[in-house]
What we know:
single chain, 274 residues, alpha+beta, 2 domains, 5-stranded mixed beta sheet, 11 helices, 46% helix, extended
Amino acid sequence: xxxxxxxxxxxxxxxxxxxxxxxxxxxNVGELTDxxxxxxxxxxxxxxxxxxxxxxxxxxxxxxxxxxILDGPIQDAVTMLDLNQLETYKRxxxxxxYQERADALKGCAIIxxxxxxxxxxQLKGKDLSPVEYMCAMLEDDDCEDCDHWRILLALCDxxxxxxxxxxxxxxxxxxxxKQLHRExxxxxxxxxxxxxxxxxxxxxxxxxxxxxxxxxxxxxxKDMMAYYYKKQEEQKKLLEDEDISHGNAGWADPKGLKNHFxxxxxxxxxxxxx
Length: 274
C-alpha cells in the first residue's frame, strides 16, 4: 500500500498532518482528496474544541470536581494532535477516532451545563434547538458573558466552521508540485510501486500550487545557528587560553626548519575567525 503523508499548506496548518494508506491502483484521486480533506478538517475542529475545553476548565478552577471532568478528554485530544504520534510512532488515526475525541469534549459541555446544551428552548416565542439558543444568547446585545456562550458553541455546534477548514469536494490534491486530477487513479502519478511514500498537500480548487517547503524548517535552522554560535565562542576561548600557546612554539611547527632557512621563522599565526 502507498503511504501518504498529508501536510497542511501554510504556517497555520503546519500542525495538521496525517498519515493515510491506500492502494494506488484502486484509489480514485477525487475520493482520496475528499478523504484527506475530511481528516485535515477534523484535526482543525478538534484543535479548536481542545482550546475551548482548556478555557472552560480554567473558568471552572474554583469548582475542582467539575473542572476535573474535562481533564481526560482534553489530554486525549492533546495526545492525538501531537505530531510525535505521526513522526515518532507512525500513528494513522481514522476519521472515527478523531470524531470520538471531539464527541468526548462535547459530552463534557453537556454534562457541565445541561440546561444550556440539552432539550428545546423557548425564547421570544420561538422554539429553539440548543445551538440556536446559544447563538441567540451570544448575539444578544445584553449578553453579559459572551465568552461562556462562545466556548459552549465551540464544543457543542457540530457544524461549527473555522477559516482553516475546507469544503469537502472543493479541494485539489498536490504532489511533487503537480496537481492530481480528481478523475484519475492515483497510480497514474505514483506509478506501480505500492511500497512508496508520497508527501502531499491540499488547497482549494482553483488555487495556486502550495509553496515549496524550505530544505530545513525554522526550528532546525535556529538550532543550527545556536550550535554554530556556541562552537564559535568555544573556539575564541581556546585561542585566548595560554595553555595552547605551545601550538605556536617553534618546535611544534613541522615546517620550522624550512622557514628558518627562508627567513620566515618567529612568525605566529592564529586561525582567522569568521
